[in-house]
Design brief:
By secondary structure, the chain is α/β, with parallel strands linked by helices. It has 24 helices and 7 strands. Strands 5-4-3-6-7 form a 5-stranded parallel beta sheet, with helices on both faces. Helix 3 packs parallel to helix 13, helix 6 runs antiparallel to helix 7 and helix 15 packs across helix 16. The relative contact order is 0.14.
Amino acid sequence: MPDSNADLSVTPSPPSGDGFWDRLRRRAFGPPRDPTAPETRHHITLIAFLAWVGLGADGLSSACYGPEEAFKALGTNTALGLYLALATAVTVFVIAVGYNQVIELFPSGGGGYKVATKLLGRHAGLVSGAALVVDYVLTVAISISAAVDAVFSFLPVDTTGLRVGAILLVLAVLTLLNLRGMKESIKVLMPIFLGFVLTHAFLILYGIGLHWRHLGDLYPATTADVSRLSDSIGLFGVIALFLRAYALGGGTYTGIEAVSNSVHLLKEPRVTTGKWTMFYMALSLSFIAGGIILLYLLWNAHPVHDKTLNAVVFATITSHWQWGGWDLGTLFVTLVLILEAGLLLVAANTGFLAGPMVLANMAVDGWLPARFSYLSERLVTKNGVLLMAVAAFIILLWTDGRVDTLVVLYSMNVFLTFSLSLSGMCVYWWRNRGVEPSWPWRLALSGLGLATSAGILVAVVLEKFDEGGWVTAVVTGSLIAFCLLVRRHYGQVERQLAALDEILTQIPESPPAEKPQLREGEPAAVFFVSRYRGVGMHTLLNVQRMFPGHFSNYLFVSVAEVDSSAMKGEAGVSNLQERVEADLQKYVDFCNAHGLAAAGYACVATDAVDGAARLAQQILEKYPGSVFFAGSLTFKNENWLTRMLHNYTAQALQRRLHLMGANLMIFPMLVDARPGAP
């Protein structure tokens, strides 16, 4: 427990100002949230229904293009469409069941990245994480482009010059919504999602119902057609044709992994909520995707220039909807296609929800700059959202928002992460085959999912690599190389700091005969510290050496910056608070043992500088004339990488304190982060 001299109260970070720009910012992004308030997690977590809308839209939106690609690959051999519809529906559930196991084993989220890291090794995790990040950026880009294309298909031809501008405007709006928070963005887009599900379910049931008299003849007719096709091109030819169509329709299964990546965003009990969310998504996607392929077959749909196959079959189904001179069928199909465009925007939003979570998990593990794990005052992974927006902006400008180009770039990484995740699950169940009674069927399910995903991956690579898939490989490989560089830098710095910790934090102490008392109203030496480690002790010893006997009070200030890992459970923030208090108490105990009066001040905040400035103001009111001190890493080989990977909080805080009329002295801690440095 903290001693009586230590003021270790934990307070939230307040708004940084009340000027015009601060008021405008709060109006645009919403008021700040208190990470220490018990109700905060209630406001930022999702029930299964909202998670289905927010995280399931990516998977469900693939029904707008995945089934079409698969059916068109059959060419004139549409008799295989019945088997294709069944295979599509079953595959969705096979992959979903595999990811249910991921949710069980990794309830803190991370999905494919965590599975590969924990079960296959950190470098497999790096590949999976990098592939997921690129995939989510492309999800944002392709979904927005496809949605805008759908809308512009109803507008006059002379408006097409505004298309790219409209794409970038939509990107900006989605970015703003996600900077406000998850629930805000989901609630705005929910009517579009529900409209899509209801209209498509109606058309599938209605379209099948109009052919109900022929359903009994469908299977015998299909079997006879397939038999004739087999006589023509051989059994292996039929199998090859079917597998090619099945693989090219692999886009139907993209987005299924989004729930397992973001389990920590779900309401408790998270595993149960995650499984229900996965069930909702698998049921809706398998029904709509499989049902649409069945409609293609029943209504003898054929491609028409400048129209999607969905538009063709829906128009055929509703062609007899006439009333009082009104073509109700055309009006309804137009509404349905607008909802398809809208759902693609919801899918783009999924990239903004799940992508920053992958970035945050990789940042916590040291693969990416630590700032990607920090939260904004709205408890949103702001830096991740902004990176997703900037990356999508660059890709959209480079490709001119062309969906056909983006589809090629998008087609490989998702099945790479599927394959790695399900490989990890196979490894897990094999290792635990003597522990878990149900391991045989769980291993079989994971193995079936792995075979499916790996088969689609191989087919997609062979089909699409030369058409532009190599660009995805280069981009993903470049991100992996950057992550390796970041990890090496952080590792080198940490080794040097650990050596300093071992020296300075092991200074012998002797218990004081009488605990020194603080003197209010007199100046204090105030130290901004983080953990109990060598940098803080180095600063304290330097102050004692430079100002012997000058200060009667020694105060230690620590701000625990809330990151994504702290918000992954009910006790995350309170555990963070306890760690801060324990580290501050070590500084206080050290000073007391050497006859120095000391106390600690702590707060939990989403911005370290804001939180520290507030505590500094409190200290100055109680101990006027205090002088502030901080340690800061200084690199022998400072470059763009060190500036990106370290936030230089001390320098930012020094400016804030100068504006308050206080002095902050920074003591440099020299670090050599060059490869091979001792």
